[in-house]
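Notes, p. 3: input format for complexes.
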Amino acid sequence: MGGAGKVFQWHWATARPMSIAHDRTAWIKGADDLCHTPAAKPARPYRLVLLGAPGVGKGTQAELLSECLGACPLSTGDIFRAAKSADDCGTSDAMRTALDAMRRGELVSDETVLALVVERARCLRCGGGFLLDGFPRTLAQARALLVLLATNNVALDAVVSYELPIDQIVARLAGRRTCGKCKAVFHVTSRPPRAEGVCDHCGGALIQREDDRPESIRVRMAAYEENTRPLAEFFRAKGLLLTIPAAGSAEDVHMRTTSALRARG
Ligand code: AMP
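Output follows (265 residues plus adenosine monophosphate):
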């Protein structure tokens, strides 16, 4: 995605200079010839993993970071949601099993997730950098990611872990709305769209995700505690972890993140 060409001017102090419409078709569909992101070359490509419980705001932060760093936001959840809305006839057995797990709020198997990510390794090699959101989610995925990156001669700059008390997370999930078209994320109270139910970016309809229902939320939280929380220690031991308090507005959290990244150098 976004090979050579345009040079981004990014100023930490002022933030938000360089908006780029990332075409995530190649990531979402897994095909090599589908990336139409305008050629982009940030002065420094950032390669980050965003960690945190479901609903902590990773998707929103990925979007904000993408605007200022130029890196492409890559969510594994978006791959599954796109497959769900695609024509069932084109869906494989593995994908059907994955979508069943997703509907229940459970994790998809490491094997399926890793196969999808390996198929999309081109997005990880991209000169524009990447922001992984929702992957890795288990220790096996984290280890596999590091091997995959090493094989592709790229390294992570940092793993940003967003932390928030559980009651605040549940409130965020219940009010979350996602654009059915461009996947931008809003919240009915803390990040409302300009017009109710309509995406600010593309005019698409805003929807509540199926897995944001209370029964799925409980299963997803349990899966997070069991499988994903240990990743913070795994990455801390590798000197990659940046812990960011996720309370407050999306802008506050964004500024905390960019300050921490800048301090890291
Ligand atoms: P997300 O949008 O990241 O919350 O992902 C939505 C759902 O997709 C999750 O609840 C899982 O069912 C599935 N999923 C996404 N990414 C992964 C992953 N890395 N490992 C396992 N399951 C995943």
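Confidence is low (pLDDT under 50) at residues 1-19.
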